[in-house]
Amino acid sequence: KVCIADSACAAMMGAGFEAEADRLVTREGDEIVVDGSVLEGGGQILRTASVLAALWDLKLRIRSIRGKRTKPGLRPQHLKGLEFVRDFCGGTMTGLEVGSVEVAYDPRGQFRERVARADDSIFGATHMVDVKTAGSCTLLLQTALPCLVASLLLCRCCPPTSPDSKRQRKGSEVQDPTQVLVLRGGTDVPFAPLADYAIRVLCPALLARFGVKVSAKVNRRGFYPKGKGELEVRVSLCERVEAAAATSTSEPRAAVLKHFKTIVVCGGGKPKDWKGESWKPLATIAEKMAEAALKEYTDDSTAFEKEVSCDEKSLSPGLSIVLAAETDYDCVLGASRVMEPRTKNWKGQAKPLVGEIAAALRARAEADEHLQDQLLVLMAIIAGEYSLRCSELTTHTLTSIELLNRMLAGLGVRVEAEEREEATTVKCSSRGLAPL
């Protein structure tokens, strides 16, 4: 048993991990200082730290932004994410320019004030974020979603009789507002979850685990290099928003695959590299690979399905694939990637995705390796006792755990992870955001 939060993480990640974790968050006066060059060392530190600072009203300075990347500093998508936090949650932010390696943020308590008075910056028209490049829409969503959910949770603290309340009475019922977000940029780009992954994997997980209803649709595909795709997201709350009951992890039975779907999307016509419609067999190839590799997790009721489409509106050609596996314990595991058409090796590119699904099923995981860290901030926001079974924790997840424990120390949030032979379980105890 390894308890990551108790500084034994070097056993999992190597001797250097603990030293880097100690450098991640320090304090200088009333400021929290985050070193963006350690642990994950990329945009995820920026996304998580800025959101925690905004929602818990913490003065923040991030240095050495994306220090482990080939091109350190802010890229357009990171800049737009920070601008969303500032514009939606309030406060002042300096260092907002492409290439900047240091950003300072003072929330000034404005987020809660804005929610309390139903400010139009939060409950006004549709929220729009346009990267104007192929910057990832789903990574922008990772910044925006916790802010939108937090606004709806705090809104429930305002009585519907208040003239400022956005909660409306319909007969004897009180209806909460719905937040609408439109993201423009790359919907299907490398080094980020794809749009269909968010639709097929993330959205069901948010509903099942928290009672948060998120629906998303792609209005236009955005592939590299032009991007300019559009992802429309709607966020609302169920009547009860709470931590889902933990599933038992004692002597778990083998996972059974209920439904497996392969989604293949072509964008921007049919480039010559693909020889007409040579991309269409990709879905069949991936499905057959999955049937063979995951045979031990199937039974007579397991269904395999494929969906193939082409978006002629996409400004750049591209090809993407998403695998979504629904289990008998009501979780959806996923994997996705943008394909490289010039290699003409569909099997070689799809094989690692099937391997990711197999590893998650082997551990009877409740979240695949791309979903783990996306759930952690919401665990902190929504009060409850959480348990999340994973196959192996990613560096992104380990970094998020360290940021949550160190930035929110003394604020009622504690995250731990226990490693066992077959899986690692993340446990979070949270008081959630304090009511208005």
Give an account of the 3D structure.
- The chain is α+β, with helices and mostly antiparallel strands.
- 32% of the residues lie in helices and 26% in strands.
- The protein contains 12 helices and 18 strands.
- The strands form 5 sheets. A 5-stranded mixed β-sheet has the order 1-2-3-5-4. It has a 4-stranded mixed β-sheet with strand order 6-9-11-10.
- A hairpin with a 2-residue loop joins strand 1 and strand 2.
- Helix 3 packs parallel to helix 7 and helix 7 (137-155) packs parallel to helix 11 (372-381).
- The radius of gyration is 21 Å and the shape is globular.
- The model is unreliable at 1-11 (pLDDT under 50).
Strand and helix order: HHEEHEHEEHHEHEEEHEEEHEEEHHEHEE
Shape: globular
Biggest beta sheet attributes = 5 strands, mixed
Please state the CA-atom Rg, rounded to the nearest Å: 21 Å
Distance between the amino and carboxyl termini: 39 Å
* Estimated structural class: alpha+beta
Give the fraction of residues assigned to helices: 25-40%
Q: List segments where confidence is low: pLDDT < 50 over at least 5 consecutive residues.
A: 1-11
Amount of beta strand: 25-35%
Mean pLDDT across every amino acid position = 90
How many strand elements? 18
Count of runs of 4 or more consecutive helical residues: 12
The strand line-up of the biggest sheet is: 1-2-3-5-4
